[in-house]
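User: I'm writing a tutorial on reading structure tokens. Could you give me a worked example: one chain, its sequence, then its tokens, then a sentence or two explaining what the tokens reveal?
Assistant: Sure. Here is the example chain.
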Amino acid sequence: MAVTAVGTPSTPTQTTSGTGALNRAGAWSGTQPRTADDLLVALFIACGTTTASASSQTAGTTGWTKLAEWGAATPACASIWTKPATGGDAAPSFTSTIVGTSARTRLATGLWQLNSGNGSVPLTDVYNSGAGTGTSATLTTTTVGNVAAAGEYALAVQANYGSTGTCTWGTSGSFTNSFTDAASTYAHWVMAILASPASGATLSYAPTHSSTSTAESGVVAVFKAGAPVIRAGLAAGSGAASRPAVVTDETSPGLELSGYGAFPGVEASDTINSITVTSNQFVSNTLMGPPTYELWDGATAKIGTTRTGTATTADTNIDSFVFTGVTYAQLSTLRVRIYGHKGTAPAGAVQNVNWTGLTLNYSPAAGGASVSASAGAASGLAGGQGTWATPANAAGDPDGTYTTWAVP
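And here are its predicted structure tokens:
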């Protein structure tokens, strides 16, 4: 799948004066919804007469990772930051400490949203880790390593500081200069994009600029799609009581979930690495013991060891466990058994299980990176549907009901 930009970025916001620690927040456009599992990318520049320090997240901005930066402690600093989107993410702000003449300062932040097209978070492929600074009329930044495959997406940023006046930026290869600062000042910058750069070779960004620079810095990075996330339809649970089962002993009757869909694209010759069990569960009282999980080959053989979840009242809680040792022949018969535990909870306490999913990680026989495939999420539709003491649907609840065990 090809990585693409979502929406049209807003014109990068700028700070045009000041010294000391200065902040520059970006701005999302109305066409960039920051959908969960997309990748958010920030291009940031900072210029000062004497120096611009390395960039950092401003207080209140969290979760961003600095991918690469060049020019820290010179008059022109450029960097690229990334963050997997969680949904509706706030615009980030970055800080650089400027030393020099206030009127010659420049900070700018541009924001992009990238999508893999296959449900995965885009990943960094290659970027430049050298030759990111200079004083020539053309600074060349080149990735260290070849672009891995077709359909990737490149972003580049350069900044220069030098003589006053306007600056005309040239293009570089097939790159498109999305935004430039051509104001009559001492500091200038450019932000550029390239969809589907040629694979099998390094990628360079080398735009010309008309201003004479005493310092310039740049970063170029290429992003690729992650492993495909394949989702089958919901599978019904089986083996549950027609109403909430009573936890009369320490351990409840087991809730067995079966009927999972097939794992698409897996062949008998592929290497099965692991099965990940994920489950949305929570309790009404943390005095209950945490639920336990078992992975089974049909009804005959338990796979691996029993795993222990989390005793929490958070209805967004997701337990996740990795099981190894699963064979190709077992994929079509996998079942999950879940047990509630009374602990020291008083009567009326409830263990809720909303859904449980299976994801396979395997290595194709033909070679290449490991791949993940999902068999869907079992939601307990066959029975055991109860109402929590304070009814509230968990995030992503497919059917609005819960499978529960109650303490008498």
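What the tokens reveal: The chain has no helices and 29 strands. Residues 229-249, 379-402 have pLDDT under 50 and may be disordered.
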